Each structure stands twice: as C-alpha cells, then as structure tokens.
Amino acid sequence: MKTSIKVATTVVAIALYSAALAAAFSYWGPEGHSPVTTFVVAAIVGSGAAVGFGIKRVRERRHGTGAQDGVERDDSLRAQAAAFIDVLVAAIALVAVLVIFPQWISGTTALVILVVFALADFWMRYAIRVKSAE
User: Would the pTM of this model clear 0.70, i.e. be above it?
Assistant: First the structure.
C-alpha cells in the first residue's frame, strides 16, 4: 500500500474518531460544553499515536532496524521481556503499599510512578544491551 494512501486513511480515521467522540460528549456531557473543543482535543490526542507510529516506521526503514531477524529487534525484545518482569514486581509492590497505607499515596500517583518506572527500566536495559553489543 502506498504511503499517501496510508496517511489519508489515518487522517480520515482520526477525524471520524474525533467527530464521534465530540458528538457523544456533546450529547452525554455537561451542559454548555462545546463539541468543537472536544473534537480538537480528540484530534490532537488521536494524532499523537499515529504520528509516533509513522516516525517509528520511517526510522526503521531508513536505518534497517525493523528486520525480523535484526540484532536491534532482538535487543529490544530481550529488554522488553526483562522490563516486563520488573514492572510486574513493581506493580505488586505498589498495590501492597496502596492497601497497607491508603492515605500515603494516591492510586493515580502510583500509576504514574509505575509507568515512569516501566519506561526508564526498558530504556536502561536496551541501552545496556546495545552498549554491550558494540
């Protein structure tokens, strides 16, 4: 499939998603809320993932790192697997903290801590694997 067709399809999908969300929110949302604001916010949020995915694909093609049997892909998968175990342990620890000390930390803060920990854990493991392979 040509890149221009993929881009057009993605733009149309984001516009439809944003319009559906704006219509639903204007129907079920609070009184006096503008559907245009909801449409703009949904378009920005929806396009962020699509743009990120597109940038990733362009970088993979340019640098040749997207191959199924590539070293970079293997390093990434190994780092993901190791980080997943760490995130499971950290999630269990955070749930225990939330149960034992419910006033000490909020659930939202615990979730943010877990996401930041997961991202940092993966990127540190990936950087270590790439440096050790050189």
Answer: no
Inter-axis angle of helices 107-133 and 71-100, to 10 degrees?
150
- Distance, CA of 32 to CA of 6 (rounded, Å): 37
Task: Express each pLDDT in 63-80 by its tens digit.
Answer: 666 666 677 778 888 888
